[in-house]
Amino acid sequence: MTVPDDHRSDQGLVHVRRALVSVSDKTGVIELAATLKDLTIEILSTGGTARALRQAGIAVVDVADITGFPEMLDGRVKTLHPKIHAGILASRREPEHLRQLREHVIAPIDLVVITLYPFEATVARTNVSFEEAVEQIDIGGPSLIRAGAKNFEDVAVLVDPGDYTGLLAELRQHKGRLSRVTRLHLARKAFAHVARYDALIAGYLERNITTGGESTLPDVLDLRLFKAQSLRYGENPHQRAALYRGAEADEPSVASAKQLQGKGLSFNNLLDLDAALALAREFEEPVAVIVKHTNPCGVGHASRLIDAYLHARAADPASAYGGVLGLNRAVDVETAGALSATFVEAIVAPGYEEAALATLKEKKALRLLQIEPWPGMMRADQPGRALRSIAGGMLVQERDAIDLNLDDLRTVTRRPPTTGEIRALRFAWKVAKHVKSNAIVLANEHATVGIGAGQMSRVDACRLAVMKAASPTRGTVMASDGFFPFRDGIDAAAAAGVTAIIQPGGSIRDAAVIQAADEADIAMVFTGIRHFRH
User: Fold this and answer.
1) Under CATH, to which class is 406-526 assigned?
2) What residues does each domain of the chain span?
3) Domains 253-397 and 406-526 in one fold
4) Which of 7, 15, 293, 363 is an active site residue?
5) pLDDT digit string (tens) for 410-447?
6) Do 105 and 68 meet the contact criterion of CB atoms below 8 Å apart?
7) Among 171, 367, 475, 513, which one is least packed by beta carbons within 10 Å?
8) Which residue, among 193, 194, 217, 195, has the nearest Cα to 206 in the 3D structure?
9) Is domain 5-207 annotated with CATH 3.40.50.300?
10) Per the residue annotation, which of 150, 174, 263, 363 is the catalytic one?
């Protein structure tokens, strides 16, 4: 065995004479192998890939014939052998490497084509067993990929069938040779591919660990995010931006939504749509959520989607102009007609009736996003983390998915809330959870009436909620995301005609706050649950 003198040209081109092809995903592999054969490149292969190539009339050499060992342990061991890995890892520039190849009769391998076991697709299936998932953890494939990628100066490695066409075109152009630029690009992609694969496995195993109530936040957080699209700019025109999608996204989301029409989504559109969808997922009944600058400005719910939307729009018509809309039902033609009467930047919904879509598409600039329907509302036991970047690091917490058990409400005033007030309080509490702190929400049973968001003091949030109200506040209820530190917030609520309040409680001045509510005949309940949103 010798390594030909023209393995590498002066231009950095490497001559490909031998390829190892072992793929789980057979897409394009026959065409790839046929071209390799036409270029007189010898093909080594294993198992199902070798059978598929032979059936297509393409000659292959079994890896077992080279190693002297058959595939073992139900296919777990195929290529893990020095005669394979040395052929890939040997540096053609190192005389001692070449001497050892000759001594042990090992032929160099110049191209490695591998697609890994479909672990991601397997664990995405409903009711897949843990044992099935473990069997789809590839061992030999990642080892081969890493070996080829490490030795990119002499070897090219392919992990994506989408790269077959470009590689074959270059091989034809350079008469069986590949450039260093191509080899380095493929090596970078290969390492990223294996890193993602390992991260998916680690994430799956982590999700299947029983912690006994201990923290589920790992000691090492490995984030694999993949660029889904470039954005025109970030929050401001001087900031570059892109959308990256998580490797383990397993629920309906704006990041994975299908855009049906409209201009490209902006950075701010995506933030607002995500906020609208998060709040819409809190409800089982039809709901419409209008968001401006990541805060809800109008939320309505009803037995019909159109009524929910009309309630939401009426809550703050001025702010609704140019907002984004989140819905938890497919858009029907009646709702689409109402939507056409107001300028809306974007809509996210779990579907659109055909006639509704035709109506909405008359507004060419309107961005329409469709997501998969979700089963039920957000649950407290639904897994997930919330991440926020800070300079030099990342803050990570469990998602705020806790629900309110009405049996746990504690009435602290002389007067308990009425049944109607309880319904309105529960609705307002859900909305307040999605409003930036300090957050105050005025509402009735059907919709928000006024929202005070992002204020530095709670009493200012109360005053802002009253000021923003487009309809009378008398007879409304109030929800607060945190406790009232002073009675001034209750006094502001009383002046506005609020009849019931829901809040976490826990202030050192709770007694004074309760006294203020009693003096105004306001019913007040404590939840014991705070919902700060910074």
Assistant:
1) alpha beta
2) 5-207, 253-397, 406-526
3) yes
4) 293
5) 999 999 999 999 999 999 999 999 999 999 999 999 99
6) no
7) 475
8) 217
9) no
10) 150
Residues comprising the chain, all counted:
534
Q: Indicate whether 485 pLDDT > 50.
A: yes
Q: How far is CA 320 from CA 101, 281, 289, 310, 462, in A?
A: 72, 20, 10, 11, 20
244 phi and psi angles, rounded to 5 deg: -115, 140
Work out the angle between the directed axes of helices 510-519 and 488-496 (0-180°, nearest 10): 20
Q: Mean of the pLDDT values across residues 17-39?
A: 89
433 in Cβ contact with 481 (< 8 Å):
yes
Q: How confident is the model at residue 380 (pLDDT cuts 50, 70, 90)?
A: very low
The token pair at 166 is 């470009």
The whole-angstrom separation of Cα 212 and Cα 206 is: 13
Judge contact between 274 and 386, C-beta under 8 A.
no
φ and ψ at residue 247, rounded to 5 degrees: -70, -25
Amino acid at 510: D
Could you please report the per-residue DSSP string of 76-110?
A: TBSS-SHHHHHHHH--TT-HHHHHHHHHTT-----
Q: Give the confidence band of 208 by pLDDT, cuts at 50, 70, 90.
A: confident
293 labelled catalytic: yes
The CATH number given to 253-397 is 3.40.140.20
pLDDT digits (tens, 9 = 90+) for 98-134: 888 888 888 898 999 998 888 888 887 778 888 888 8
Direct distance between the N- and C-terminal alpha carbons of the chain, in angstroms, rounded to an integer: 67
Residue 137 has pLDDT above 90, yes or no: no
Catalytic (active site) residue 150? yes
User: Exposed (0-12), middle (13-18) or buried (19+): which is 11, by Cβ within 10 Å?
Assistant: exposed
Task: State residue 11's pLDDT score.
Answer: 63
Average pLDDT across the chain, whole number: 88
